[in-house]
Amino acid sequence: MRWMWIDRVLELTPRSRCVSIKHISLAEDHLHDHFAADASRPPMPIMPASLIVEGMAQTGGILVGHAGGFKEKVVLAKVGKVELSREAIPGDTLRYTATMTLFDAAGASVSGIVELLDPAKPGSPEQIGAIDLMFSHIDQNMSGIEFPSHNFVFSESFRTLLRSSGIAADF
Amino acid sequence: MTREEIFGKVREVLVDALGVDEDEVQPTTTLTGDLGAESIDFLDIGFKLEQAFGFKIGQAELFPQGVSQDPEYVKDGKVTPKGIAAMKEKLPHFDFSEFEKDPQLAKVAQVFTVDSLCRFVERKLSKA
Question: CB of A20 within 8 Å of any CB in chain B?
Fold first, then answer.
C-alpha cells in the first residue's frame, strides 16, 4: 500500500500538466506529532513541508508516468527547488499544479506550483510555494541494474486514485 | 555564440543544477571531484543544457553509458584500450589524455570538466 498524499486528480493534460488536491484533516495521525505540545506551547498541527513535496512528487509522477503510458518506473530523482512561504493547517486544501518542462527516454523535469485554499477565506487561492522536481525512468538509468518487471511504482494505490478521479487506469 | 557566452550559460546551468557558487565553476573544474555532482545530476545537467541552448541530447551522447558493464571495455577495474577508443569516438568533447596514463574506471569522472561541457555545446551548436 502506497501512502497517497493527494486526494484527487482534477486535471490531466497529457505531457503538459497535472492538477491535484489534498485536503488536510486533523484526523491524520501525523499532524498530532507535527507538532505535539511541549512545555512552551500548545499543540501546533502543521502539514509537514516534506509531505507537501511528496504531494507534488505524486502529482508530477502521474504526469510523467502517463506520458509514458505508465510503462516506465518513474521515481523521484532530484528535488531541484522548494520554496514554501506559509504553513498549511487542518481544514486547508492544497492544490498542486505540475507542469512538464522536459520529457525523454531517460526521465523528465517538472515545475510545480502549490496553492492554498482556506475555506474561511473564499476567493482566489493563494500561491504558497514552488517546487521543481526531476524524475528518472529507472530502468534506463541504473547502469544495468535490473528491477522487478512489474511496475511497482504505479501500484493499486495509484490506480485507485486515478479511477476515483475519472481517469482511465487500465494499465 | 562565443566561447565566453557558452561558458557563462554552462556556468548558470551548473549553479542551478548543483547548488554551487558561480566562482566555484571554472573551465578546469571537475563536475564530480570539485562540484560534488552525483550520477543523477548528470541527467539533470543534460536536461538543463537542453533548455539553456535549445537542442536535444541523445542518450549516452553527453556522458558515457554502459562502459562499465562491457567486459571488452573494462578489465580488472581498468578501462581497456578498446574501451578508451570507443569513448573517444562517442564522446569527442572529453579529453582522455591524462586518464589514459592510468585508466582506472573509478577515475574516469576526472575527464568531466566544465571545459568539456563547453566543448560539447560548441559542437552541438555548430551542427545545428
Answer: no
Per-domain residue ranges for chain B? 1-60+112-128, 64-109
ipTM summary value: 0.74
> Which residues of A are catalytically annotated?
34
Angle between helices B114-127 and B39-53 (to 10 degrees): 40
* A39, part of any domain: no
pLDDT per residue as tens digits for the range A5-61: 999 999 999 999 999 999 999 999 999 999 999 999 999 999 999 999 999 999 999
Query: Which of A140, A141, A144 lies closest to B69 in CB terms?
Result: A144
According to DSSP, residue B113 is labeled: B
Closest among A2, A117, A115 to A61, alpha carbons compared: A2
Range of the domain at A90: 8-27+44-155
Question: Does domain B1-60+112-128 correspond to CATH entry 1.10.10.10?
Answer: no
Q: Which residues contact B31 (CB under 8 A, 6 or more apart)?
A: B14, B18, B37, B41, B42, B45, B109, B112, B113, B114, B117
Structurally, chain A folds into a number of domains equal to 1
* Average pLDDT of span A122-144: 85
Q: What residues contact B53, with CB distance under 8 A and at least 6 apart?
A: B9, B121, B124, B125
